[in-house]
Amino acid sequence: MNVTGNIGIAFLLATLAGLSTGIGSSIAYFIRKPKMIYLSFSLGFSAGVMIYISFMELMPLAFEGIGEVWGVPAFFAGVFLAGLIDMFVPEMQNPTI
User: Fold this and answer.
1) What is the spatial distance between Cα 48 and Cα 36, in angstroms, rounded to a whole number?
2) pLDDT at 96
3) d(Cα 20, Cα 42) in Å, to the nearest integer?
4) Side-chain half-sphere of 4: how many Cα atoms within 13 Å?
5) Relative to the CA of 95, which of 4, 17, 43, 65 has its CA 20 to 30 Å away?
6) What is the C-alpha separation between 66 and 31, in angstroms, rounded?
7) Alpha-carbon torsion, ordered 27, 32, 36, 42, to 10 deg
8) Average pLDDT value for residue range 54-67
């Protein structure tokens, strides 16, 4: 694919992301009394997508650095360690509870 095609795809994806943000914010603006479960679900979903994108951006670099055999277990060990830290931090200092 040539450079012009890459620029077109990048522009299209950026436009779709901007429109999605605008549509989502307009929905949130026009809902007068949103339910807490709806807000919790949508915020949790968007946070999960952002974390997934961040990890998938870093995964190829990890595979180049330490290889796929060690990269996957190290990734899940990091997830497990983050869960342990979240579990053992006192409740008053832990904003996720």
Assistant:
1) 18
2) 58
3) 13
4) 0
5) 17
6) 48
7) 0
8) 85
Provide, rounded to the nearest whole percent, the portion of the chain with pLDDT above 90.
Answer: 3
22: helix, coil or strand? helix
How far apart are the C-alpha atoms of 9 and 1, rounded to whole Å? Answer: 11
Q: CA 35, 49, 97 angle in degrees (round to 5)?
A: 55
Within the chain, where are the H helices?
A: 3-30, 36-66, 68-88
| Token representation of residue 90 | 């006192």
Write down the pLDDT at residue 77.
Answer: 93
**Residue 86 to residue 93: CA distance in whole angstroms:** 10
Mean pLDDT value across residues 14-27:
77
